[in-house]
Amino acid sequence: MTVSFSSNELAALLGRSAWFRSAPGALQTQLIEAGRVERLAAGQRLFSRGDADDGLYCVLDGLMRIGAAGSAGKEALLAVIEPVNWFGEIALFDNRPRTHDAYAERDTALFHVPRAALAALLERMPAWWHVFGLLLTQKLRLAFDAIEEAALLPAAQRVARRLLLMAGGYGEPGALRRVLKVPQEDLAMMLALSRQTINQVLKQFEAQGALKLGYAEIEIADVRKLGALADLEIVGPLSSPH
User: Fold this and answer.
1) Within 10 Å of residue 28's Cβ, how many Cβ atoms?
2) Which of 44, 66, 106, 215 might form a disulfide with 40, Cβ 3.0–4.6 angstroms?
3) Rounded to whole angstroms, how far apart are CA atoms 174 and 237?
């Protein structure tokens, strides 16, 4: 299903992405002109591991799951992608198949720039490869951080850091999301921890006043307390809940 948005509405939505805002104005304009808004129903698959690359996506509304299923049917959940975050850039660089599965956790609106349009755009303006490279390297830094944390940090500290990372839009500067719509089971899969361990850690954080737990959601009650539990310094003004 394709839904129409005006150029001004798209610019306002995409402008919430720090990567998009930092791109040259001409590139922003051409991405908006080349792309289209699509909607997925809850549970609908966007692409599967091994599919051919069909372009770059940005979540405008809703939630996407990125992961893979093993031969025994067990799911490895790498990330849940909330607005306004981009994904799908790896295949843009190597022209190889998709690395993981992507499907909608709930009804979701996506901005999609097809591969053919991106290829034509970059052929005309090769200097813009650097802009897309910055999107890729941001993800690579996050991946390295996750590998290091899994090897070196105790479970509680890993949980606190992942919650702060999700609340901050995976590195997006700006307003902090206070309420995370993430079930504890999903958090356990993302961190490769047991559901029991996640529950114990979250209840401990709640008792310390850092979190408030609800059904399939986690509210950050005190970001500085959570930062202390993550062994991170939290600076700057905090946004109101949204």
Assistant:
1) 18
2) 44
3) 9
For helices 195-207 and 155-167, give the axis angle rounded to 10 degrees: 80
pLDDT of 148 higher than 90: yes
Q: Which residue has tokens 């909607």?
A: 39
CATH number at residue 226: 1.10.10.10
Backbone angles phi and psi of 163, in degrees to 5 = -60, -45
H-helix segments, the chain: 7-14, 18-22, 25-34, 90-94, 115-124, 129-152, 155-167, 184-191, 195-207, 223-230
Closest CA to 19 of 147, 151, 169: 169
Write the DSSP assignment of 27-42 as a string of letters: HHHHHHHH-EEEEE-T
Q: What letter represents residue 40's amino acid?
A: L
The answer to pTM > 0.90 is no
Rounded Cα–Cα distance for residues 228 and 237 (Å)? 17
pLDDT digits (tens, 9 = 90+) for 112-135: 999 999 999 999 999 999 999 999
Distance CA 165, CA 208 (A): 20
Beta carbons within 10 angstroms of residue 25's beta carbon: 7
Number of domains into which the chain is organized: 2
Domain boundary among 123, 143, 163: 143
Q: Would the CA dihedral through 13, 103, 171, 33 be positive or negative?
A: negative
- Give the C-alpha separation, 185 to 19, whole Å: 30
Domain span at residue 186 reads 153-230
pLDDT for the residue 7: 79
